[in-house]
Predict the structure.
Amino acid sequence: MHGYFRLFLFFVIVASAVASSAQTPTPTPERTVYKTYAAAMSAGQKLAADKKRSGAIDAYTLAAGLAKNDLQKADALIEAAKVQQDNSRFVSSGGGKFKGTTFTVFGHPDAVRSLNTALELPGIDDAKRAEIKIVRADVYFAANKRIDAHNQLVPEIEKKANKPIALVIREEMIALADAASTPADLKVEALIRKAQTYKNFRDSYTTSADLRWAFDALKAGSEVAGASDPAKASALLQIAELARIGNNSNIFVTAFEAVTKLPKATATQKHTAATELANVLIANDRVEPARKMLTETLAVPGLTVIERGGVHRLLAVSFVREIISKKPARAAEDALLASARRELATAAKQTKFKADDLAEAYRGNAEFIRGFQDAKYFLLAHEQLNAALAVPKISDRQRSKVQYEVAETYRLEKKTAEAVAAYKLVTNANPQYFGYALQRIKELGGAKPGN
């Protein structure tokens, strides 16, 4: 009797504990509360920059609620949509058609809802509506690349409109570009997106007609009256990319030259145009005008460290190219190589790089310079990699990455034995590059590297 009672009491206690556990809710993180619109918008910008998308979306959503007018609210919703467009989450399903599967849900529908809410605000003007529609077109483009059984935004839009999403976007962008109330810069943006609608699902052009129609849209964008230099440069840079695809060297060069003649184009736009043109000049053995263009580009205010480094790397290429094309006497060749080395050293020391960062800059120099496929470029590439390995306090992880590039350089030189020997020196201090080395050794028929 007492035994049965003790057993009954045990089950009562266990059941009570389970019930108590079931009734205790899982704590959820508290949402940050912002007191002002400005504080919420500032927080959203910082969180978005730090890739903390959920926090950024919350901040922008709260900013929309704190807005003093419809223009402020629209701006908050636009920023929320931009983050939502890039946001995604994993969802596990335990039943139904997708039983036992894990899939990704993208935030495109949330972004569209935010933008549609902004469009309905009565206190915004036509310029703001045009901006919202352009952002929405970007969301449509992004969503169109993610169609599957769980993401039906685009199919639903197409069903409702009874036309493909590309045509939905194109018609809206044409209307924006034609509207007198659309600001000039936004007309350019609309025409750029119109050009995008001629691309297929793989971001390429199916027919030459598609390429031509895209070119016509971008050309119109580059000629919009009253548009700013940066807006026109955006269209011109994309024209150059179309010319690259279509192998039209005249349009390629003309578009980049037009960008260099826009005095108020951004530093990055000027850098892109100048370096692309310099590449063409160097390839055609016109090293002096290329060098002049690159030197002038270094004087452009606002270039990033990476952009300045890229200019110095290309200057190094110009000196080596001069050796190859002119075949100067030994003393002149040594002077040109010394100039190339100075440019590469300057590229690696654009800022206060130390340890792994400095080693990575030297590694980047090597990867860039060896891409020009000549014995002298390979010589400089090995020198840069040796400099990387000699950097004080380089980590074992970075050393393995650099060592892999030493082996890659030998492989690109067709020096198989040296490449295999170099791959064997890659350690698993960097598992990623250790794996790459294993694969390369297998391809080249060598033995496995050490641990």
About this structure: The mean pLDDT is 89.
